[in-house]
Amino acid sequence: MTQISVVGCGNMGGAFIKGLQESGEHTVTACDVDPDVLDAIAPYCDETTTELSVAAEAEVVVLAVKPDLVGAILPDLELDADQTLLSIAAGVPTDLLESETDARVVRIMPNLAAEYGMMAAAATESTVTDEVRAILDAVGEFVEVPEAQMDIATAVNGSGPAFVFYLINAMAKAGVDGGLSEADSRTLAAQTFKGAAETVLNSEKSIEDLIEAVCSPNGTTIEGMEVLWDSDVEAELGEAVAAAEERSKELARDADGE
Ligand SMILES: NC(=O)C1=CN([C@@H]2O[C@H](COP(=O)(O)OP(=O)(O)OC[C@H]3O[C@@H](n4cnc5c(N)ncnc54)[C@H](O)[C@@H]3O)[C@@H](O)[C@H]2O)C=CC1
Ligand SMILES: O=C(O)[C@@H]1CCC=N1
């Protein structure tokens, strides 16, 4: 059981808190400047505060504010060497964080599915500790990568949920166009993505072999796959990931210039 505080309880900080509460493994203090945000998160944590000094008492302080606020907040967040600053801010490098705090710094990139214990996260391998591994384990899965890979990880698993929501929506809309109700099509499309993801995670087959397993000879799937193979969908998705990666690098350059 680790005492955790989360500074910034918006979309990502809030999802992290809800996931941690569900796991029941840690105590959580929620800190935000917005009292409405704190009212909304209060049922999911042990304590709420608007004071950074209260958040600074935790063993692990999760910094979950927008990247451009990190530089302004860190000097006021007085942490000691025996504490951990767990930063989730996109594009903010470890060395910059270390220059503003005495705490041990661990930079990670989580995602919104932390709320449901299904987060995919990347943690910087040179700094991650067992204490942080236990926190990440409580809300999903994580990989450990060199810091140089944090920008691409940010694009794949941090921004990735938005890209997948887009694809689910496209599939659901196609179902509605074919006559399904919106509710049924949303359920079928989302559960199909969830089931396909579980299959990839659990199967030893390559993704190409899994596609082949769905394509019955002379069946329906191969007709749809021919359309996808002939299209630019793969390249366009690659460009979306590359654009998000480039923005993460740009945020790092901005942070360095501050
Ligand atoms: N939204 C997402 O899916 C993901 C976001 N992130 C990272 O998480 C961080 C937060 O992003 P979001 O949650 O999307 O932003 P958000 O805007 O939803 O939440 C930020 C929160 O910080 C609070 N805040 C602002 N100044 C503060 C201060 N001085 N003290 C305490 N709280 C303060 C705001 O009131 C707000 O509730 C960013 O650095 C982002 O890069 C990382 C992975 C995924
Ligand atoms: O869009 C963003 O900048 C944040 C970081 C990854 C997901 N959301």
TrEMBL record:
<dbReference type="InterPro" id="IPR008927">
    <property type="entry name" value="6-PGluconate_DH-like_C_sf"/>
</dbReference>
<comment type="similarity">
    <text>Belongs to the pyrroline-5-carboxylate reductase family.</text>
</comment>
<feature type="domain" description="Pyrroline-5-carboxylate reductase dimerisation">
    <location>
        <begin position="147"/>
        <end position="251"/>
    </location>
</feature>
<dbReference type="InterPro" id="IPR029036">
    <property type="entry name" value="P5CR_dimer"/>
</dbReference>
<keyword id="KW-0028">Amino-acid biosynthesis</keyword>
<dbReference type="InterPro" id="IPR036291">
    <property type="entry name" value="NAD(P)-bd_dom_sf"/>
</dbReference>
<dbReference type="GO" id="GO:0004735">
    <property type="term" value="F:pyrroline-5-carboxylate reductase activity"/>
</dbReference>
<feature type="binding site">
    <location>
        <begin position="64"/>
        <end position="67"/>
    </location>
    <ligand>
        <name>NADP(+)</name>
    </ligand>
</feature>
<dbReference type="Pfam" id="PF03807">
    <property type="entry name" value="F420_oxidored"/>
</dbReference>
<keyword id="KW-0641">Proline biosynthesis</keyword>
<comment type="pathway">
    <text>Amino-acid biosynthesis; L-proline biosynthesis; L-proline from L-glutamate 5-semialdehyde: step 1/1.</text>
</comment>
<feature type="domain" description="Pyrroline-5-carboxylate reductase catalytic N-terminal">
    <location>
        <begin position="4"/>
        <end position="91"/>
    </location>
</feature>
<dbReference type="InterPro" id="IPR028939">
    <property type="entry name" value="P5C_Rdtase_cat_N"/>
</dbReference>
<keyword id="KW-0521">NADP</keyword>
<protein>
    <recommendedName>
        <fullName>Pyrroline-5-carboxylate reductase</fullName>
        <ecNumber>1.5.1.2</ecNumber>
    </recommendedName>
</protein>
<dbReference type="InterPro" id="IPR000304">
    <property type="entry name" value="Pyrroline-COOH_reductase"/>
</dbReference>
<keyword id="KW-0963">Cytoplasm</keyword>
<dbReference type="GO" id="GO:0055129">
    <property type="term" value="P:L-proline biosynthetic process"/>
</dbReference>
<dbReference type="Pfam" id="PF14748">
    <property type="entry name" value="P5CR_dimer"/>
</dbReference>
<keyword id="KW-0560">Oxidoreductase</keyword>
<dbReference type="GO" id="GO:0005737">
    <property type="term" value="C:cytoplasm"/>
</dbReference>
<comment type="function">
    <text>Catalyzes the reduction of 1-pyrroline-5-carboxylate (PCA) to L-proline.</text>
</comment>
